């Protein structure tokens, strides 16, 4: 059973949302500009401009080169849409073709095609896929776990015999540095102990 709504307004909203989701997973605007950049590059060498009774034709020996560049730009734009994994290569190739079109295709389609190829290639290189929802929360949970582990390690002290003793929260829950006090019956510790209570020393 299809989830597509039956009324025209709901159907339009359905396809609009699907197109938005499809557009968000790829460098859509970069591909669109790359495709559009090939239009003036291909058009001007084969166009016939009429000024009154005078007809101007710009079809020169560069017409074949302009056609090849325009077709390649359109192909790279489609590649950005349907194979976004190679978006960096497609963006670099689009910029290079835009530069090549300056001496080959009537100054890059009188600058229009060159500028569109330059912007589209830059957008393709700089585009990156977004993070799925909930990834930030998972990242925060992992950071909290790491901080808890580090806090537990800082609360662990070492006895003179080489064993580890966990004294819980440093200084009875305070925020100051933890200095271990003497243990009962331990001859290796002196009677003078340093306490972290305000940084004062006391004699036992």
UniProtKB/TrEMBL annotation:
<protein>
    <recommendedName>
        <fullName>Integral membrane protein</fullName>
    </recommendedName>
</protein>
<keyword id="KW-0812">Transmembrane</keyword>
<keyword id="KW-0472">Membrane</keyword>
<feature type="compositionally biased region" description="Low complexity">
    <location>
        <begin position="177"/>
        <end position="187"/>
    </location>
</feature>
<dbReference type="Pfam" id="PF19609">
    <property type="entry name" value="DUF6114"/>
</dbReference>
<dbReference type="InterPro" id="IPR046096">
    <property type="entry name" value="DUF6114"/>
</dbReference>
<feature type="region of interest" description="Disordered">
    <location>
        <begin position="130"/>
        <end position="204"/>
    </location>
</feature>
<feature type="transmembrane region" description="Helical">
    <location>
        <begin position="28"/>
        <end position="46"/>
    </location>
</feature>
<feature type="transmembrane region" description="Helical">
    <location>
        <begin position="85"/>
        <end position="104"/>
    </location>
</feature>
<feature type="compositionally biased region" description="Basic and acidic residues">
    <location>
        <begin position="134"/>
        <end position="151"/>
    </location>
</feature>
<feature type="compositionally biased region" description="Polar residues">
    <location>
        <begin position="189"/>
        <end position="204"/>
    </location>
</feature>
<keyword id="KW-1133">Transmembrane helix</keyword>
<feature type="transmembrane region" description="Helical">
    <location>
        <begin position="58"/>
        <end position="78"/>
    </location>
</feature>
């Amino acid at each position: 059973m299809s989830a597509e709504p039956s009324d025209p307004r709901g159907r339009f909203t359905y396809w609009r949302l699907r197109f938005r989701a499809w557009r968000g997973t790829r460098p859509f605007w970069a591909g669109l500009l790359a495709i559009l950049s090939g239009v003036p590059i291909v058009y001007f060498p084969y166009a016939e401009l009429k000024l009154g009774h005078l007809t101007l034709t710009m079809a020169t020996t560069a017409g074949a080169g302009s056609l090849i560049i325009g077709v390649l730009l359109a192909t790279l734009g489609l590649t950005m849409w349907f194979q976004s994994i190679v978006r960096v290569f497609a963006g670099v190739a689009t910029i290079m073709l835009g530069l090549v079109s300056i001496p080959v295709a009537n100054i890059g389609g009188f600058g229009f095609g060159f500028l569109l190829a330059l912007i589209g290639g830059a957008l393709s290189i700089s585009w990156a896929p977004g993070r799925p929802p909930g990834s930030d929360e998972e990242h925060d949970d992992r950071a909290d776990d790491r901080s808890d582990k580090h806090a537990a390690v800082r609360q662990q002290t070492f006895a003179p015999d080489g064993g580890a003793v966990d004294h819980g929260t440093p200084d009875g829950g305070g925020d100051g540095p933890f200095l271990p006090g003497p243990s009962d019956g331990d001859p290796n510790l002196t009677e003078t102990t340093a306490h972290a209570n305000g940084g004062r020393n006391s004699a036992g």
